[in-house]
Amino acid sequence: MLQLIIVLAVGVPIAHWLVALYARSVWRERLERKWDRGEGQGDREVFVGDGMEHFEKSILKRVIGLVYIIPVAVVILIAYVVNRS
Amino acid sequence: MQKVKWAIWGFLALMAAAFLHYTLPQHDVVRITDTLNRKTPIGRINGFFYASTDSGAPASQGDPDIRFINAVFPDGSVMVYRNEDTGWIWPPYFKYDSSNLQAVASNFKSTETAPQWVMVTHYGWRFAPMSIFPNALRIIAVSGPDVTFFPWLNLVILALLAGLVFFARRMWLQFWERMVDPAVANVQEAGDRTRGWFSRLFGRKS
């Protein structure tokens, strides 16, 4: 059981970090494309920077927090289903 | 070269398929004839196909005492399941009730004249030449030998795995597009500048 806890304690933060990195990258790319299409105002850097601040408050960022919850929930669910008599 | 590439991909796909077939749950409808445990020496060849010691027990000395369940298929062919805790890492069934499961299996023991058919959920393979046994996970009573079970759970798991692979690929491509390609372009630009500097130095126009 200790092994599992160690694997989760190490693996889940790494997975969360990777997914958050990906989401930020996609978010930034979308903002840059938007500005390049002429739909943004002002300086490009400022426009993208403001948009990235929106990411920090977005629902998407909270959804990514599920990366912490889902593996633990799945482990508990599997253990329950397999061992119930 | 193309053939070698396809051969490698084919081999990898085959390994992945075999791995999934070994690990994912399967269902057998059988009649349990006996339950027993016996000291089972495990060698280097088949050791990979056995689980660790019971999840609450310390590492054992000597040959482990493993629980087995003998069973018969409706067509008369036989199957032997082992019944071991899986431990907490792999395969990820987190099974720790093998003693209880053995009691359940013993309860379902029946004779050919008064058969009690059961569905055994298990993972793993029976491969006699290497003394490998599938590990039983769950045993429930069924009404008759003709009961079939649609593997909807396996479909869900495979779909989720495919989704995970697709997502990982998207992440990888995004990383490549946003981080590696610009970096490579930068290096090339820097290389061009350096070349320009060198050619100016040596008085040659490039």
Give the SSE map.
The complex is a heterodimer of chains A (85) and B (206).
Chain A: H1 2-36, H2 44-56, H3 59-64, H4 66-83
Helix pairs in contact in A: 1-2, 1-4
Chain B: H1 2-23, E1 26-39, E2 65-72, E3 78-83, H2 98-107, E4 117-123, E5 135-141, H3 152-201
The global form of chain A is: elongated
Q: Distance N terminus to C terminus of chain B?
A: 37 Å
What composes the largest sheet of chain B?
5 strands, antiparallel
Major beta sheet of chain A, specifics?
none
Report the β-strand fraction of chain B as a percent range.
15-25%
Secondary structure: helix percent of chain A: over 70%
Helix content range of the residues of chain B, please? 25-40%
Oligomeric organization of the protein chains: heterodimer
Gross geometry of chain B: elongated
Work out the radius of gyration of chain A.
19 Å
Order of helices and strands of chain A: HHHH
Portion of residues in beta strands of chain A equals under 5%
Structural class of chain A: mainly alpha
What is the number of strand segments of chain A?
A: 0
Radius of gyration of chain B (Å): 27 Å
Structural account:
Chain A has 85 residues and is mainly alpha-helical. Chain A contains 4 helices and no strands. Chain A has helices at 2-36, 44-56, 59-64, 66-83. Chain A is elongated, with a radius of gyration of 19 Å. Chain B is α+β, with helices and mostly antiparallel strands. In chain B, 40% of the residues lie in helices and 20% in strands. Chain B is built from 3 helices and 5 strands; from the N terminus they run αβββαββα. A 5-stranded antiparallel β-sheet of chain B has the order 3-2-1-4-5. In chain B, a hairpin with a 5-residue loop joins strand 2 (65-72) and strand 3 (78-83). Chain B starts with a helix and ends in a 5-residue tail after the last helix. At the A-B interface, helix 1 and helix 4 of A face helix 2 and helix 3 of B.
